[in-house]
Amino acid sequence: MLIRSGKIQFLFWTAFFSVMIYLWIVAIGVQTFVLPDEKPMELPQNAVVLMFILYGLLIISVLAGTIVAAMIDNKFYRNFFGTLLIIAFVTVLAAKSMFG
Questions:
Q1: Highest mean pLDDT among 19-23, 32-36, 44-48
Q2: Quick count: other Cβ atoms within 10 Å of Cβ 26?
Q3: How far is the C-alpha of 100 from the C-alpha of 96, rounded, in Å?
Q4: Alpha helix (H) ranges present in the chain?
Q5: What contacts 18, CB < 8 A, 6 or more positions away?
Q6: pTM of this prediction?
Q7: pLDDT at 65
């Protein structure tokens, strides 16, 4: 059995939960805005608030992972979190351009 250091375990679990939060955001966005049964008359406030909270958690976890990966000089996780950060910002920009 491999025993990893606490820093590597932190990076792994931070990466895992960051990906899960991102997939949760995408699922909520697709269900609410892309594939609704009927066109909503007004913006669904609860879905928007949940997405803002999830984006906040995503940014905090990605930045924490990036900082720890940079401090211990782990190239794989530094590239992973950098790519995830870029993907998250591109998703925000794409959603903003589609829905105004």
A1: 19-23
A2: 14
A3: 5
A4: 6-29, 45-72, 75-99
A5: 58, 61, 62, 65, 81, 84
A6: 0.87
A7: 96
